[in-house]
Amino acid sequence: MIALLFAELADWANARFRELYANWWWAPLLITPLGFAVIVWLTNSFAPVAKGSGIPQVMAATKNPEAALSTLVSLRAAIVKFFLTIGALLIGASVGREGPTVQIAAAVMGRIHKIFRIPLKSSVYIAGGAAGVAAAFNTPLAGVAFAIEELAAAYEQRMTLLVMAAVLIAGMVSLGIAGDYIYFGAMHQTLGFKQALIATPVAGIIGGLAGGLFSRQMLASGTFEWEPFARLRERPLLFAGACGVVVAVLGSFSGLTWGTGYDTASSIISGGSVPAWFGGAKFITTLATAISGVPGGIFAPSLSIGAGIGDLLRSILPGYAPGAVVLLGMVAYFTGVVRAPLTAVIIISETTASRGLMMPLLAAALVGEFAAQLVCKEKLYHGLSRRFTLSDR
To answer: Closest by alpha carbon to 57, among 96, 103, 95?
Structure first.
């Protein structure tokens, strides 16, 4: 229920910002940089562990479940995450709500266990995070896959029942309240065998390399020693404002890179076109937002970037089913960033009802996983989670 409320408010915030931009295109040049600085100040003042995605925090929380309940997945962190992610969308930040939903759901799961005096184990947070993914995308299978691939480094047999039960309940509540909707809408295009043999490695290599580059830049942002960048990083509010300037300038002059990118991705999947530079521009605004310290996730923006890459692939693969090619680009880039190919395939197939593309999607994801490793050896969320583990100590 909290995930659905979060989704409604996030969509409302995104729509309000787009109305502002439509009426006064220059307003974000002032509001976005200032908003970035204010949100980072509020985050650092009230709950520093609420910054960024939320998935690394949950991964770190599994190392010490009891201590994490008052820090990484505390009620305070969840409340700050909830409202400041919505605030980030109100100022046009390139963030998603899915990662924050994972942290919020894990905090709810932990708090309920504490109220009923049930012993806290790492599986509690893993199940909560999985339920968050299931409710955020309306994709129960993706919740289970995400728990196995990402949240649990070693998936223990005894947590199976808890994960399945949490995902089942979250999925039923989402279905009962929001209805049986498909996140991006149904896409039934397919590829022939010969076309798939060509399209999947091309999409996998290009998308995987791009996704790996994003992860590498994200991980390097905390240690990059170029003097001007390092000095700016030492002043969090000024750094956040500078990131906001990047987002505001690209967004104001493109009109396409604001917010989650959901509408643009949906349009591309349905056959709409975007300028060739869209994927690159969205990549930059998402990276700038992610390293600024603003609370917010990268799931939805990554799918939007992947759609932009898929749109480019359509131009070099004429005659191929355009929607199918876009989905290959999306799954390859998403895998390159998150490095969870099974989760990526299930999310794409469930959010587009494209079950006829399962094999090409899986092939593109596996190629994307291999290509991403050539650029970035370390998994993004695992690398980021260590920062929170260290800060928690």
So the answer is: 103
Looking at domain 193-389, its CATH architecture is Orthogonal Bundle (1.10)
- pTM for the whole structure: 0.90
pLDDT band at residue 392 using 50, 70 and 90 as cut-offs: very low
pLDDT one-digit tens code per residue, 323-371: 999 999 999 999 999 998 988 998 898 888 888 899 999 999 999 999 9
SS3 297: strand
3-state secondary structure of 54: coil
Q: Which of 135, 142, 140, 162 has its CA nearest to residue 62?
A: 162
* Cα 388 to Cα 222: distance, rounded to the nearest angstrom: 12
Q: Choose among 241, 245, 251, 242: nearest CA to 21.
A: 251
Whose CA is closest to 283, among 257, 311, 252, 314?
Answer: 257
Query: Taking the alpha carbons of 22, 24, 25, 31 in that order, is the dihedral positive or negative?
Result: negative
> Residue 26: helix, strand or coil by DSSP?
coil
Residue 301 CA to residue 308 CA, distance in Å, equals 11
Tell me the C-alpha distance between 133 and 145, whole Å.
10
Summarised one tens digit per residue, pLDDT across range 288-334 is: 999 999 999 999 999 999 999 999 999 899 889 999 999 999 999 99
DSSP 73-123: T-HHHHHHHHHHHHHHHHTT---BSHHHHHHHHHHHHHHHHHHTTPPP-HH
Domain 2-182 matches domain 193-389 at the CATH topology level:
yes
CB 163 within 8 A of CB 96: no
pLDDT digits (tens, 9 = 90+) for 5-36: 999 999 999 999 999 999 999 999 999 999 99
For 26, other C-beta atoms within 10 Å of its C-beta total 10
pLDDT tens readout for residues 139-170:
777 887 887 777 765 455 556 677 778 887 88
Domain spans in the chain, listed from the N-terminal domain onward: 2-182, 193-389
Q: What's the one-letter identity of residue 230?
A: A
Q: Which fold has domain 2-182?
A: Clc chloride channel (1.10.3080)
Closest CA to 375 of 149, 224, 214, 202: 214
